C-alpha cells in the first residue's frame, strides 16, 4: 500500500504579491515556516506579439509536511503534559494524513476512550491549534495503539462490501449514523468504485452515508430496478401455473380463477404487492 500523502498546491492570484501571500496564508492557516511560497512567471497575452504582462500576480503555496508534522507533534506533547499523561508521541506521514500516534506508559484505553471519543477530542483541539481555523487542507490524525488504523480499515471493508451489494441489487443502502471523520473515510474508499455514488443525509448527530447506484449505470444482469431479486427456489420465479399456485397457497392468497377480487378493487393483487391490512 502506498503511504505517500498527496496534498495539492494552493495557487492564489491577486493584484499584488503581498495581497496574494496574505490570502494564501489566511486560507491555509498553518505556521508561516511550514509553507514554501513561489511567485509564478508573469502571464502575457499570447494573441498580441510583444504585449505587456497582464496585471496582477500569481503565487503558489506548497506545504512543508515535515515542518508541519513537527509543529503538531510539539503541540500534542504539550497538551498531554498539561493533562498529566505520560506518553511518547510518534510522528508519521501516512496515506490518510499526518499521523500522531500516542504511545502511553499506562492504560492506552483511557486515551482512546469509548468508541475513540477521547482521540476525537484531542484531534479536534490539535487541528484548531495547528491550522488556526484554516481549511484543514492537511489531515491531522491523532491515534493510539493503532486504534484508528484498525477502525479505518474496517470502515473501508464495510464500504466496499456494501457497494458490491448496491451494484448487485440496484438498490441504495444507508449506513448507520457516523461522525464526520468516519463518513469521510467511506466517501474516499468509494471515490473510484464503479457503479456507485455516495452522499450524506440527515442532520449532524444522525447524519449517515447513503450508497446509491450510479445514475445512468445499467442494472446488474437479472435485476429489475425497484424490485428485490428473486431467489432461485422462489415459486414466483417459475413460469408454470403450478409454481404460482404453490406460492399463493403458502402466502394465503386465493388461487386465480379469472374472477375479480372484490376486496382489491376488482383486481387480483400481484405476488409482489404487499398484503392489505384489514379495515
TrEMBL record:
GO terms for molecular function: RNA binding. Residues 268-279 have a biased composition (Low complexity). It is found in: Cytoplasm. This is RNA-binding protein KhpB. Residues 248-267 have a biased composition (Polar residues). GO terms for biological process: cell wall organization; peptidoglycan biosynthetic process; regulation of cell shape. One of its GO terms (cellular component) is cytoplasm. It comes from the Bacteria. Residues 204-279 are annotated as: Disordered. NCBIfam families: Jag_EloR. It holds the Pfam family R3H. Gene3D superfamilies: 3.30.300.20, probable RNA-binding protein from clostridium symbiosum atcc 14940 (3.30.30.80), R3H-like domain (3.30.1370.50). The keyword Mitochondrion does not apply. Residues 231-247 have a biased composition (Basic and acidic residues). Residues 149-215 form the R3H domain. InterPro entries: Jag_KH, Jag_N_dom_sf, KH_dom-like_a/b, KhpB, R3H_dom, R3H_dom_sf, R3H_KhpB. Forms a complex with KhpA. The gene is khpB. It comes from Sumerlaea chitinivorans. PROSITE patterns: R3H (PS51061). A probable RNA chaperone. Forms a complex with KhpA which binds to cellular RNA and controls its expression. Plays a role in peptidoglycan (PG) homeostasis and cell length regulation. Has an N-terminal Jag-N domain and 2 RNA-binding domains (KH and R3H). Keywords: Cell shape, Cell wall biogenesis/degradation, Chaperone, Cytoplasm, RNA-binding. Belongs to the KhpB RNA-binding protein family.
Amino acid at each position: 500500500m502506498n503511504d505517500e500523502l498527496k496534498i495539492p498546491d494552493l495557487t492564489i492570484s491577486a493584484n499584488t504579491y503581498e495581497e496574494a501571500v496574505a490570502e494564501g496564508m489566511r486560507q491555509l492557516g498553518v505556521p508561516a515556516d511550514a509553507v514554501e511560497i513561489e511567485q509564478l512567471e508573469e502571464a502575457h497575452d499570447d494573441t498580441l506579439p510583444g504585449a505587456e504582462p497582464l496585471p496582477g500576480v500569481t503565487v503558489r503555496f506548497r506545504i512543508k509536511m515535515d515542518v508541519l508534522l513537527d509543529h503538531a507533534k510539539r503541540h500534542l506533547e504539550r497538551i498531554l503534559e498539561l493533562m498529566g499523561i505520560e506518553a511518547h508521541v510518534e510522528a508519521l506521514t501516512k496515506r490518510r494524513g499526518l499521523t500522531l500516534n500516542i504511545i502511553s506508559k499506562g492504560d492506552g484505553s483511557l486515551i482512546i476512550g469509548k468508541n475513540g471519543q477521547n482521540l476525537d477530542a484531542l484531534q479536534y483541539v490539535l487541528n484548531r491549534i495547528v491550522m488556526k481555523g484554516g481549511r484543514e487542507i492537511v489531515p491531522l490524525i491523532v491515534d493510539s495503539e493503532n486504534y484508528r488504523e484498525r477502525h479505518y480499515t474496517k470502515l473501508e471493508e464495510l464500504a466496499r462490501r456494501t457497494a458490491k451489494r448496491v451494484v448487485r441489487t440496484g438498490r441504495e443502502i444507508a449506513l448507520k449514523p457516523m461522525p464526520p471523520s468516519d463518513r469521510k473515510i467511506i466517501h474516499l474508499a468509494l471515490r473510484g468504485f464503479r457503479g456507485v455514488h455516495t452522499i450524506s443525509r440527515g442532520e449532524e448527530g444522525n447524519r449517515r452515508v447513503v450508497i446509491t447506484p450510479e445514475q445512468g449505470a445499467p442494472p446488474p444482469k437479472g435485476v429489475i430496478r425497484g424490485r428485490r431479486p428473486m431467489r432461485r427456489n422462489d415459486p414466483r420465479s417459475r413460469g408454470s401455473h403450478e409454481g404460482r399456485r404453490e406460492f399463493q397457497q403458502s402466502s394465503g392468497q386465493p388461487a386465480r380463477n379469472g374472477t375479480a377480487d372484490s376486496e382489491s378493487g376488482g383486481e387480483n393483487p400481484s405476488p409482489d404487492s404487499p398484503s392489505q391490512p384489514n379495515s
